[in-house]
């Protein structure tokens, strides 16, 4: 063999190799072609292994012939590899395409129950005047729900609260207090007085229960917020100022307010606190019985007997208390007509607020 035919063999190898590289259809395919041509047992090595058949003086020139071929082949393989990898990425992108113009699925977020939201708003407003929220139990004793609030057993005033008494699992031991579902949040007043000393400014929001025939404005399970303030020199004027500020924050700055005489056994004097009708703004409509006024809470100066029952000296301290129906306030805020909606668990109602 002479150098010229060796050079032709090299050229033929290059030509074949370049077409194999061009034909490689995948990175794996290409790696196989690479090994077959340039690998340790590849065709190029094998060909160069035949160098011994050349005349001795020609052998040093083989490198000059073979090296450019090797370099061109290496470059061709690298270029093909890049093309194949790019094509693989593009194929994957096409296969996994996301249509970002599709509308998203709606995300369901929870929200506060309207009653709870009103409760928080009431607490926020009175919080600005230093009132703090305390909790009081839903199951109460007859003593705290009634007697300590100046409502003795068998007193006709009990008719104001249709009461659900508990059936005890066993016979009540003699002297053990009779238990009931609290009919109002007012027992929280006694608990607060007994648990601390004046000055006292507390709110007790919570669930109450009455033995009621249910209709659009009566539920046997409903909500109240109680307020109590006790200090030296506390007066009816302070109560009026505070309730005005509350009514204006809750129902708008220009809203008219008034006190009307009322009756509660635990306050003396007692009042009903009215605001100008939120439906007709005072001109008179069915919602306010054509009076132009709506009662939003009961209030008064804490009765001395109640102060004494709470362990507070009525000669030194005075206080006022108020109690409002959270359901009613919420109904007025959102123009809700039926109190039963609050506990019906109808998502269409809950999501609209
Ligand atoms: N407890 C009363 C009720 O359930 C509301 C109330 C009226 C609470 C006057 C008070 C008050 O603290 O002073 O109807």
Question: How is this structure best summarized?
Answer:
With 353 residues, this protein is α+β, with helices and mostly antiparallel strands. It is built from 11 helices and 9 strands.
Q: Can you describe this structure?
A:
There is one protein chain. Helix content is 39%, strand content 18%. The chain has eleven helices and nine strands. The N and C termini lie far apart (97 Å). By secondary structure, the chain is α+β, with helices and mostly antiparallel strands. The protein has two domains: 3-95; 114-351, BirA Bifunctional Protein, domain 2, CATH 3.30.930.10. The strands form two sheets. A seven-stranded mixed sheet has the order 1-4-5-9-8-7-6, with helices on both faces. It has helices spanning 3-23, 27-38, 43-49, 62-95, 114-127, 142-145, 187-195, 236-251, 304-309, 326-334, 347-352, and strands at residues 132-133, 139-141, 179-181, 200-209, 221-231, 257-262, 267-276, 293-302, 318-325. The mean pLDDT is 92. The structure holds 3,4-dihydroxyphenylalanine (DAH). 3,4-dihydroxyphenylalanine is lined by residues 184, 186, 226, 264, 267, 298-300, 321-323.
Question: How would you describe this structure in keywords?
Answer:
353 residues; alpha+beta; BirA Bifunctional Protein, domain 2; 11 helices; 9 strands; 39% helix
């Amino acid at each position: 063999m002479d150098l010229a035919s060796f050079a032709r063999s090299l050229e033929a190898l290059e030509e074949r190799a370049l077409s194999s590289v061009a034909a490689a259809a995948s990175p794996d395919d290409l790696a196989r072609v690479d090994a077959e041509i340039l690998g340790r047992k590849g065709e190029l090595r094998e060909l160069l292994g035949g160098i011994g058949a050349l005349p001795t003086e020609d052998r040093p020139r083989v490198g000059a012939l073979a090296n450019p071929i090797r370099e061109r082949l290496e470059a061709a393989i690298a270029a093909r590899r890049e093309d194949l990898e790019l094509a693989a990425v593009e194929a994957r992108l096409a296969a996994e395409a996301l249509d970002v113009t599709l509308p998203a699925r709606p995300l369901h977020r929870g929200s506060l129950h309207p009653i709870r939201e009103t409760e928080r708003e009431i607490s926020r407003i009175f919080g600005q005047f230093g009132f703090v929220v305390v909790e009081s139990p839903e199951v109460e004793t007859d003593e705290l729900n009634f007697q300590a609030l100046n409502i003795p057993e068998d007193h006709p005033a009990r008719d104001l609260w249709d009461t659900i008494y508990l059936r005890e699992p066993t016979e009540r031991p003699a002297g053990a207090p009779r238990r009931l579902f609290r009919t109002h949040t007012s027992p929280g007043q006694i608990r607060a007085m007994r648990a601390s000393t004046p000055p006292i400014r507390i709110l007790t929001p919570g669930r109450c229960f009455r033995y009621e025939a249910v209709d659009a404005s009566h539920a046997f399970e409903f909500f109240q917020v109680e307020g109590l303030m006790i200090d030296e020199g506390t007066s009816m004027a302070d109560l009026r100022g505070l309730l005005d500020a509350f009514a204006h924050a809750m129902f708008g700055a220009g809203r008219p307010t008034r006190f009307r005489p009322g009756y509660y056994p635990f306050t003396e004097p007692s009042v009903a606190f009215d605001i100008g009708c939120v439906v007709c703004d005072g001109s008179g409509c069915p919602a306010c019985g054509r009076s132009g006024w709506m009662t939003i809470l009961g209030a008064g100066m804490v009765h001395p007997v109640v102060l004494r029952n709470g362990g507070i000296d009525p000669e030194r301290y005075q206080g006022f208390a108020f109690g409002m129906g959270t359901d009613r306030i919420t109904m007025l805020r959102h123009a809700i007509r039926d109190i039963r909606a609050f506990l019906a668990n109808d998502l269409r109602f809950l999501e609209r607020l």
